[in-house]
Amino acid sequence: MPLPQEGERIMVVVAHPDDEIIGAGGYLTYAIKNKAEVLVVILTNGEGNRLSALYVKNQPPQEIKKIFLKEGKIRQNESINALKIIGVEQSKVIFLDFPYRYLLKLFEKNWSKKLVYPYTRRDKPFYTNQYNQDKFYQGEDLFKSLDEIFKNFKPNVVITHNFNDYHPDHRATYLFVSSVLKNNPQLKSEVYTFLVHFNNFYKILNITSTTNFHHLTNFNFYSLPLDNSMIALKKSALSQYKSQLENPYLRYIFRSSLKKDEIFIKENE
Ligand SMILES: [Zn+2]
């Protein structure tokens, strides 16, 4: 994996607060160290992950709304704190506050039809910024927000989710980023993707590195070596996502992402 260099413009686009460190915490650390410009864009607040239907089922709608909004803020702050640890300032983080678990639906079915997020009963972002104000929960509007961000920041390197990831929000993030890049060929951005939920990807990497995945023929794997001090820094950043560490599966994913290298995938052109 080519290391980020001074003057480069690195944009990381992810679905949920925590994906940015799981997938690219080490890469972002190098980017900061080497004085590249960095921007992290997080499409949802990931609220529904901990607030299972079971938990909110018996609450009146007003209560559910409050619970979700509070959870969204908690997760945003966890990302802000985690990124601060590796040197990314809060001003370099954008939360678009689109609905958790519904990104694929926005891309496939609600491109120009507003979606009402069933939990908060909202059809537009609650936490607004210069990019998502006057936007609704529909694919077209998420596309527009991202398109503006790309046009302003002009990334020469983009890191995002891989289309083969099992999480529908992760796949949708890839689709939105790809559409925006198609709309901005002048940027000539290099795109690298990473997997979070994919088979036993991390488990296998533990034993034999990427050799087991060579049957995925249109994948080119790139490895970014992390030394012990970088792994320790990534671990400390991951420890900020306290809400996610309650979940044993996520604890496993977190632990698994603390390896001697971060793996990125570039598709054949
Ligand atoms: Zn995620």
Brief description of this entry?
This protein has helices spanning 19-33, 53-56, 61-85, 103-108, 139-153, 168-183, 201-208, 228-238, 248-256; strands at residues 9-14, 37-44, 93-98, 157-161, 190-194, 219-225, 261-267.
Task: Report on the architecture of this protein.
- This protein is of the alpha/beta class and 269 residues long.
- It has one domain (9-267): Rossmann fold (3-Layer(aba) Sandwich).
- 41% of the residues lie in helices and 16% in strands.
- The protein is built from 9 helices and 7 strands; from the N terminus they run βαβααβααβαβαβααβ.
- The protein has helices spanning 19-33, 53-56, 61-85, 103-108, 139-153, 168-183, 201-208, 228-238, 248-256; strands at 9-14, 37-44, 93-98, 157-161, 190-194, 219-225, 261-267.
- The strands form 2 sheets. The protein has a 5-stranded parallel sheet with strand order 3-2-1-4-5, sandwiched between helices. It has a two-stranded antiparallel sheet with strand order 6-7.
- Helix 3 (61-85) runs antiparallel to helix 8 (228-238).
- The longest helix is centred in the N-terminal third of the chain and has 25 residues, at 61-85.
- The protein is globular and about 50 Å long.
- The relative contact order is 0.17.
- Residues 204-210 have low confidence and may be disordered.
- Bound molecules: zinc ion (ZN).
- Residues 15-16, 19, 167, 170, 196 line the site of zinc ion (ZN).
